[in-house]
């Protein structure tokens, strides 16, 4: 059995290559003792490939680096497959110089050669091979080009290249980079690098300027919400909502007019009302994700992490931890999963506790309903305030954690700042779909099932079927919980059960309200809430206990006790902040 270790920097196409080589013959777990993903796969019965974590160097700052170094030192490794970004060799080859000193055969794969060609970078593969004394194969992993050459090389089992006679040690950084500079000057012709680099540096002089960086960031967020809530997303959402409430509802009401009242109510009020109320927000969600994907693909989001380093340091984290926060704007589950890439156990756990305070896409339908009723002329600014509130609360809570639970030294901050580019539409649409498809899937599964359950609990009580939902079992549960929320401005049983079902999935807050309030949701909420209590309700939804999927991810990564702590601390935090919002807001209104 031949064991090949797959090593490379983050974002060089390592996962794509691993999937291309191993197909479905993969096994995923965690390395012993750490929450770092361990992936193994088989090219054939006698060739095993171990996908090591993406790292920049072997300096053993992070768990990922420690895992990789330990495996290469003590594991039964026959070959190192080092995948690098052909368009950024100077950065990628630093890791290669360190890998050579493990005295293992190395197969160097130059990925993204098409990107290098577009940048005017011409690589003499033979010269690079001779100077590095390793086997070099150019590939384009996303297009499956060169993969057959890799498979053939691995299958032949001729791993004689790449060994050095040096003793095992890492070169100094300056020794290493001098070697890389000489290597590139002899092997690479770059016709566009200076121009491209100067262009990115010129943009960074503005976007990373100490005085301009933060106003530009805030302006970008506000513009994103303008597009979502004023110019594109909301108008399309309104149109879809009118279609569901009008023709679609009318069709099913006509179809079921001769059926029993309870069955008609189940279909129209329960399923169509519950699921339809969530699906109507698809244009809103996808517009937001389109904007976020554009910022990510342009290279700006990496700069956001860089400029936020100053604030993140205040709470004992590096700017790199802000990346899971950004991911949390989409969904908290991948945000928690991405925390595993941080350098220390302290950083990972602390980030996992704070990331769910970011406003995920599932909360967006709740905001849309309430701002549409109470803040129609300032909906974008009100929603933006909730997103910024989540960040501010996360920083304040992080400050408390830093001085109580997580008193440890800070880790160094290393992040790649990619060159700016104008994203391709196809790439943006693909990223948008990848982010948003989970919302549609959830509406068709979890929300569908939950809508049926909520309808039954609403329309059945001790005496069987009831037409008045206030006599149902769900109302009885809500009336017990309602006093808890009364000091926050929304002490009705309907609001209480909506909060309760939101623990399963935040989107169900809206679908539950659609079922239990009945009639025109806009009219009923307008009578039940005030503008202040509506904002207090949105603050509570922003901060309270994350959904079941997030709790499960937390348990998987950090254990049951950690997940339970997250549940109860967020519940208490949401109550306190919402209480202050409602009562201090009321005090200010009475004064002014």
Notes on the protein architecture:
The protein is of the alpha/beta class. The chain has a domain at 2-191: 3-Layer(aba) Sandwich (Rossmann fold), CATH 3.40.50. Helices cover 62% and strands 9% of the residues. The chain is built from 28 helices and eleven strands. It has helices at 14-22, 63-74, 89-99, 113-118, 125-132, 147-156, 173-187, 193-207, 213-231, 233-255, 261-279, 282-298, 300-307, 309-314, 322-328, 332-338, 345-354, 364-374, 379-402, 425-444, 446-459, 473-485, 493-501, 508-517, 521-528, 531-543, 548-558, 560-591; strands at 2-8, 26-30, 37-44, 47-51, 79-85, 106-111, 121-123, 135-138, 188-190, 460-461, 464-465. The strands form three sheets. The protein has a seven-stranded mixed beta sheet with strand order 2-3-4-1-5-6-8, sandwiched between helices. It has a two-stranded antiparallel sheet with strand order 7-9. β10 and β11 (464-465) form a beta hairpin. α10 (233-255) packs antiparallel against α12 and α22 packs across α23 (493-501). The radius of gyration is 27 Å and the shape is elongated. The model has no long low-confidence stretch (mean pLDDT 86).
């Amino acid at each position: 059995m031949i064991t090949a270790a797959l090593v490379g920097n983050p974002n060089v196409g390592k996962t794509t290559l691993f999937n291309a080589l191993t197909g479905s013959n993969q096994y995923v777990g965690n390395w012993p003792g750490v929450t770092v993903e361990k992936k193994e796969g088989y090219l054939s019965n006698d060739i095993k490939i171990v996908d090591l974590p993406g790292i920049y160097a072997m300096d053993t700052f992070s768990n990922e680096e420690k895992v990789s170094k330990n495996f290469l030192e003590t594991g039964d490794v026959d070959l190192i497959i080092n995948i690098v970004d052909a368009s950024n060799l100077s950065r990628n080859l630093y890791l290669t110089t360190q890998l050579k000193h493990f005295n293992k055969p190395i197969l160097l794969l130059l990925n993204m050669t098409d990107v290098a060609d577009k940048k005017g970078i011409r690589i003499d593969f033979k010269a690079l091979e001779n100077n590095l004394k390793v086997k070099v194969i150019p590939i384009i992993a996303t297009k499956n080009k060169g993969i057959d050459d890799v498979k053939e090389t691995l299958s032949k089992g001729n791993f004689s290249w790449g060994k050095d006679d040096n003793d095992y040690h890492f070169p100094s950084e300056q020794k290493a980079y001098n070697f890389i500079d000489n290597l590139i000057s002899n092997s690479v012709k770059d016709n566009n690098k200076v121009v491209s680099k100067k262009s990115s540096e010129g943009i960074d002089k503005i976007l990373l300027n100490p005085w301009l960086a933060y106003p530009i960031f805030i302006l970008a967020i506000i513009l994103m919400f303008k597009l979502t809530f004023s110019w594109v997303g909301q108008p399309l959402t309104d149109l879809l909502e009118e279609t569901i409430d009008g023709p679609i509802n009318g069709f099913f009401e006509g179809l079921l007019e001769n059926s029993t009242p309870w069955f008609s109510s189940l279909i129209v009020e329960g399923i169509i009302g519950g699921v339809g109320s969530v699906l109507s927000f698809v244009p809103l969600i996808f517009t937001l994700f389109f904007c976020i994907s554009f910022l990510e693909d342009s290279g700006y989001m990496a700069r956001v992490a860089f400029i936020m380093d100053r604030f993140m340091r205040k709470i004992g984290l590096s700017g790199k931890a802000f990346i899971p926060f950004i991911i949390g704007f989409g969904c908290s589950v991948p945000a928690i999963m991405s925390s595993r890439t941080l350098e220390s156990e302290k950083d990972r756990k602390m980030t996992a506790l704070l990331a769910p305070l970011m406003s995920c896409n599932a909360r967006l339908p709740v905001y849309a309903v309430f701002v549409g009723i109470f803040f129609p002329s300032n909906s974008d600014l009100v929603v933006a305030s909730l997103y910024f509130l989540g960040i501010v609360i996360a920083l304040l809570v992080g400050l408390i954690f830093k001085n109580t639970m997580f008193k440890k030294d800070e880790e160094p901050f290393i992040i790649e700042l990619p060159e700016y580019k104008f994203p391709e539409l196809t790439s943006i649409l693909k990223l948008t779909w990848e982010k948003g498809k989970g919302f549609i899937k959830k509406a068709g599964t979890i929300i569908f099932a939950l809508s049926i359950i909520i309808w039954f609990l609403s329309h059945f009580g001790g005496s069987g079927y009831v037409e008045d939902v206030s006599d149902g079992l769900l109302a009885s549960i809500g009336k017990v919980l309602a006093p808890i929320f009364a000091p926050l401005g929304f002490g009705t049983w309907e609001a209480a059960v909506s909060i309760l079902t939101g623990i399963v999935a935040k989107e169900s807050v809206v679908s539950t309200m659609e079922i239990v309030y009945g009639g025109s949701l806009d009219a009923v909420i307008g009578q039940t809430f005030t503008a202040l209590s509506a904002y207090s309700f949105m603050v509570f939804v922003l901060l309270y206990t994350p959904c079941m999927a997030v709790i499960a991810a937390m348990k998987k990564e950090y254990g049951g006790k950690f997940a339970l702590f997250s549940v109860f601390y967020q519940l208490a935090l949401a109550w306190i902040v919402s209480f202050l919002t409602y009562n201090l807001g009321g005090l200010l209104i009475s004064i002014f």
